[in-house]
Amino acid sequence: MRNRQPASVSNPQKESAADQIDVIEQMALLTEKADTIIKKAQAKGASQVEVGVGKDLGLSVQVRNQDVETLEYNRDNSFGITVYFGQQKGTASTSDLSNDALNDALDAACNIAKYTQADPFSGLADASLMATHKIDLDLDHPMGINADKALELALACEKSGLAGSPKIAQSEGASFSSHRNIRCYANSHGFSAAVPSTRHSMSCVLISKDSIGMQRDYWYSICRDPNQLETAQAIGEHAARRVVARLGGRKLTTRKAPVLMVPEIARGLVGNLCSAIRGSSLYRKSSFLLDSLDKKLFPDFVQFDERPLMPAGLASSWFDNEGLATCDRAIVEQGELKTYLLDSYSARRLKMEPTGHAGGVHNVLVKPQTQNFDQLVKQMNCGLVVTEVMGHGVNLVTGDFSRGAAGFWVENGEIQHFVEEITIAANLKDMFANLVAIGNDLDNRSSIITGSWLLEEMMIAGQ
Fold it and tell me: The domain spanning residue 103 has which CATH number?
């Protein structure tokens, strides 16, 4: 996987230069279609127009027990148009990029607008806020892979996992996928941009068995640049170690105890925070963080920074879904909430300025402290390491958090055994306020990058 030379996904025999020319042609074509539809909408009387176009090309393979289960090649298109006649809004979409289909979508959007009620907060973001400086964020790294090579990688990943331990009973499969996307957005303010990007991933899911029963676990790697993917052997071996560690599981009696959430679980709490401070949650008054701007939510050491311009980031972008410029900003600083996440509509509803978050947040980096995972386990001394959560038990209106969980019980600063069939519960405000430490074991496989979180106490419901 290392030092692979990028080439075209659609034709692995092409040189990378030829592949880039094809991307440039596709970007120009999509931009032209978007501009044409905007002009036609204006000719029909639309006062404002915006268009989003996407093209995705990908290859995915799934194997199970060293046999091919699925092999998929996709070439998908999407075209969405929104028109405003004053403050009446109409939206239509299609996956057909032919001129006739686009004209039909435009007609549909215009007809829908005629029957919608005027909304005084609707409309494009202000023209003065449009992004003007295009930035290459190093998002496009085509792998030049064909079906045979994708299959080879998935088989090698699963083989490595199956060989990891005699306690592994079977595989639930290994997969490899490589996708390339072109995203285009344009509006009647004159903003127009098209950006190519890639995403590659590999995963392995295994089942282990002992006299008590069977356990399931997995591991995966995902990135923009295939040179940054973990090797097939490493992913399989990691999945094997994880699934074998779950054997010999026990149950717990109900108690309160400290909880250490591994990075994959901790980033879910960051996602809960971001959902609660979105403009749509705030103006609907459906958030437990209403009126929390500049309020203390976390201890002083906590810092969340948004980095939308991070090279090769999984959520990097120099413009949001309305064409507004993105920028680095502190979301939480010294424990205080420093911003809401607003698009132009929610900003108008809240009588605030938009923050460039139409479409979501872009790369949240949670500042780590000096402790690694093992040191956090020792610091916790006695408590629960949570490695898996289940269900959707998060109420963003009240902040109540209650989810099924599994993990490892710790005593005297050392992991003792796997535990399952438990529920962990608390209120998110209390969880945030009682955060004890953030580890330096950063997980980069997401747009939210954090280490493990050590929480002072949660209710653990068991037997």
Answer: 3.30.2290.10
